């Protein structure tokens, strides 16, 4: 992540994501339709990035759709922003960010991303053989932190 | 053989995905394989496994005869003139690379290479590389509004006397059919060498290379109910014989010394190294399978299925079809109003529906359609009307969720 222009610090801090809250809402989802509705709702909580930030340097590789990731460190905690032109991808990205947003390097390093996706009932989505870019994104986050 | 018996020959199709029966509509990416193809390959490995063309022993002799028999089968299957005109490659992509590389010495600076705008990247990039090596110029053959090859523009381009014309028989992304007989005849009149990418045609149409009259025709085994890792390069003998080999090494030589090497004659000259023997034997069985299908009836059923698919998609509403014509072969390309093709693909996958969503290795085509990508549903001999209905039901759910 060597991009020069970054969204403002306030934008990073304004994003509130809570993985335990998300887990709860997923526990109540009875079928794939409800799960994916939750995913799309979650995607909406990520602010839309302006065109100036939808640039190649910020692009997540390995994703069939366009997805962009920004990262910053504020007082030793990691904050993220991401966007995608595909709604479900954006929601899946939000799920991933929820696990890391506002956390310390240590918390991120020890967080079991696979276990988290398993619990959400989305095991298959976090796989290098998928073209949704989540695997690459998870790697990028772990590297950044 | 009725349809149920035919479908029962494909073991992969008998499965459910999280409660949904598999609805496989991605045959254009790769076809499923009938059990007899798998059996033929197992039989080779269990009974006859030996390297070919080194027949000092009985096993090698058996393997060689089976391998070479498939060359004869293919000669008949596509109506080539001579068995030496059939070269086994590792796929369509490698076959086109072999031609584009092999022609390097025959192409000079300023020579023109015409490429179908709807071409798969495999029929674009090797020519670009050839152009970079030689200083040749690449020009795309434009498409009409309805995604057909623009024949007026094509004729105008032919007046510049291209050295090479590379066409698709059937577009992989859209399923549109090119009138190759007439296009090739005009290219030849203009003095061009011609190559037809038949990867998406070979499983659906009876291909007669002598009637098409092209110099090269290429296709992959895995899209015609055969195994992966194997392709076929057909070349008109006198032109094929002029290709410099892309891959050199064992088998393709006559004599080797550290001073000089003399290449073998066709077809060995273009088949360096140990070939995919089991796959070739598998392809022989796949052709036997295709040969046993009632060809006219099968073609009619597939065509009816494609038209049914197109009309069901139209009826669903909020669907954009790309290049949908009654004579399309094997595939239908679409987008759901304003929705990202990948989102549509993910939600279809939740319901056991396998389609391809993306740029379909045809980025120039996507650029000409001014889209980032699309979904493609494609069919094979085992696809039923029920598959189409299940797909439409699944897509209706997707539409309800997204719109």
UniProtKB/TrEMBL annotation, chain A:
Pfam families, alphabetized: SufE (PF02657)
Cited InterPro entries: Fe-S_metab-assoc_dom (IPR003808)
Sequence ranges assigned to domain Fe-S metabolism associated in this UniProt record: 25-143
Protein family membership: Belongs to the SufE family.
UniProt-recorded name of the protein: SufE family protein
Organism encoding this protein: Shewanella canadensis
Top-level taxonomy: Bacteria, Pseudomonadati, Pseudomonadota, Gammaproteobacteria, Alteromonadales
TrEMBL record, chain B:
Protein's GO biological process: cysteine metabolic process
Record-linked Pfam families: Aminotran_5
Cofactor(s) demanded: pyridoxal 5'-phosphate
Signal sequence coordinates: none
InterPro entries, per the entry: Aminotrans_V_dom, Aminotrans_V_PyrdxlP_BS, Cys_dSase_SufS, PyrdxlP-dep_Trfase, PyrdxlP-dep_Trfase_major, PyrdxlP-dep_Trfase_small
CDD domains: SufS_like (cd06453)
MF terms in GO: cysteine desulfurase activity; pyridoxal phosphate binding
EC number: 2.8.1.7
Domain of life: Bacteria
Sequence ranges assigned to domain Aminotransferase class V in this UniProt record: 24-391
Catalytic activity: (sulfur carrier)-H + L-cysteine = (sulfur carrier)-SH + L-alanine
Keywords noted in UniProt: Pyridoxal phosphate, Transferase
Gene3D superfamilies for the chain: Aspartate Aminotransferase, domain 1, Type I PLP-dependent aspartate aminotransferase-like (Major domain)
Family assignment from sequence similarity: Belongs to the class-V pyridoxal-phosphate-dependent aminotransferase family. Csd subfamily.
NCBIfam families xref list: sufS (TIGR01979)
Name of this chain's protein: Cysteine desulfurase
Species, as recorded: Shewanella canadensis
